[in-house]
Amino acid sequence: MLRLRERLCTKKENDRSRLAYFISRTGIGPEAFAFTSTDGGYTGRRDPPSVGQILFDAQHGFYITAADYILRPEVLESNFYAWRVTGDAKYLDRAAQAIKSFQTYLTVSTGGYTGIMDVTDNGASGQPRVRVDDTESFWFAEVLKYLYVDLLLESIKIDFFFFFRFAC
């Protein structure tokens, strides 16, 4: 646990990942994003970033390489561990903000949840224009699990629990 604490306290990956959520119009992060460095290097795809991506990166500290969101849990998982290690309430706030965005943009009329094709497009009606006609199993196995243990079990010590990452 100490090594995890040191990593979280010395690196800013979690905050940079979370930034991707705040920047989008929906409050939901894109499927993939990348960074440029001061020496001109870049992460992500083999192709160099476009002029638009470079300008976006200069303003926001990252650029989007795939704007869809298919219900992946990684940012919420990072948020969960960051909160459990640091105790900083901002991570609980972030989990609550994620729930609000999910309720607003990912729900469907039948009561389920679905991904969206472009997190930067909240549509004229405030709803995404194009949805992914699918609900991934990791939405239930991971995303909802991390939100549950973040918000509903915040007072329970998890030092003696092991969370499986995938559904059995």
Molecular structure report:
By secondary structure, this protein is mainly alpha-helical. It has a domain at 1-10 and 71-168. Helices cover 44% and strands 4% of the residues. Strands 1-2 form a two-stranded antiparallel ribbon. The relative contact order is 0.16. The model is unreliable at 1-11 (pLDDT under 50).
Radius of gyration: 17 Å
Q: Ranges with pLDDT <50 over ≥5 residues?
A: 1-11
As laid out across the biggest beta sheet, the strand order is 1-2
- Count of helix runs: 6
Name the beta content range: under 5%
Task: Write down the overall geometry.
Answer: globular
The N- and C-terminal alpha carbons lie at a distance of: 26 Å
Structural class: mainly alpha
Helix and strand sequence: HHEHEHHH
Secondary-structure map:
Layout: H1 2-10, H2 13-23, E1 32-34, H3 51-60, E2 63-66, H4 74-86, H5 90-105, H6 137-151
Antiparallel strand pairs: 1-2
Features:
44% helix; two-stranded antiparallel sheet; 168 residues; mainly alpha
Briefly summarize what is shown:
With 168 residues, the chain is mainly alpha-helical. The chain has six helices and two strands, in the order ααβαβααα.
